[in-house]
Amino acid sequence: MTHLLAGLDAHAQRLASTSLAQLIASDPARAQDFSLRCGPLYANFARQRYDRVAQATLFDIAKQADLAGAMQQLLGGETVNGTEGRAALHSALRGGAVGSAFALAARAQAVSAQLRMRELIDALAATEVTDIVSVGIGGSDLGPRLIVDALAQTGARFRVHFISNVDGNAARRVLAGLDPAKTAGIVISKTFSTQETLLNGSIVRAWLANDTRLYAVSTNAQRVADFGIPPERTLPMWDWVGGRYSLWSAVGFPIALALGMDRFEQLLEGAAALDAHALHTPLHANIAVWHALTAIWNRNGLHAATQAVLPYDDRLKLLPNYLQQLVMESLGKSVQVDGNAITTETVPVWWGGAGTDTQHSFFQALHQGTQIVPADFIGVLKADHPHAANHAALLANLLAQTEALANGQDSEDPHRRYPGNRPSTLLLLDALTPHSLGMLVALYEHSVYLQSVLWGINAFDQFGVELGKQVASRLLPALHGESQASDVVTQALLAVIHSQANAN
Ligand code: F6P
Q: Taking the model in full, what pTM does it have?
């Protein structure tokens, strides 16, 4: 597939001396023509550094790579995760499945799990429990944490807290503020073998006053039972859902507790609306396709090494953390599905933070640094608070940054010169609701998948994270002084750790 991308360099060279300001001045209609809408989600790509000719090549690549067919395969439940022999049917969790027998069966399982979630929430609501502690990591944490932080309202029936890091300070700090008699715990792990989650789950199990208030979400019912949580308090997961795509499943139990089941379902409906858009909309009007092609352009045409994501809404400040796993665990590969080394660059480093805070930290480098950093700016039009002056300032800053990065400003003083020509995409939500946030997250999921198709890599495995886990389990006995490390540098470091431990 990557041979299709070879032509991008020629377009990038052709456009190298044409600034974004010139591109827009010579084609003012692109402000309109490079924008798309899907319900409450608006996207504007006019400040990307492609012209219509380069874009035609990108859409030609999309056609030749059969992105439309790839969406059918994904939502139809085909084995898109070849290295593990699995489907990736997160769309079935939200009703966005295509009508294959496998996808329909998955959908039926998802619906029955949602019914059980509703029953468990109703039963918990009838108790004195006020707080929920959710234990999980990676895909079993980041999605729920993002959505709860974005959408939980004050005065909700349950307050939801998260423990992920194996550092015991994480558990200590969360539990310190809670009453074990009024708290329930959820241990979330697709495999139920993740070291961090089992250790933190054990802390919460021992801390709870009443361990009948401990719940689990997992594919592995046996390991859950061995941990001491019975089937009636266990919600299912399936191997046809990837961990980082799982917030729509019972992994979203903390979301449903924080928001209520009705708003959780609105989140699913929003994602399903984006599924339908990504599946049925022709390539030229398809936001997921535009987003994916833009990512490919910036990486393989402009060779940008990093990509920023900059939500201008404090409620979305965890979005960069969430996207780091979604994008980089999915696309951080250098081998194609056929086992051959890839000959182009794949995922850039994704990073970011919420505006306007970040304007006062790293934006200096975005404006005047030597690296061009393409950015996704995300804004929300409805304020949902009474501070109208703040909201106007927020939106003015959002618009100002995208404009200033693109256009720059000349000066005779080189220190005060802004080179501009820095590309960005603007995504706007009419309001931040479960529905619109579901759409936004699903947009990124599908963009990631379509990028993986264009690069010919598997977006759904993550073997890269295994080696570090294996080495850590080998080193645990060495840390206890029960064995020797084989690596000389590690031996020296262990000696430092042991000498400090003895000194204390
Ligand atoms: O970091 C690796 C990983 O396997 C992620 O893909 C996953 O989301 C996370 O660990 C947690 O895994 P589990 O849900 O099985 O505990």
A: 0.98
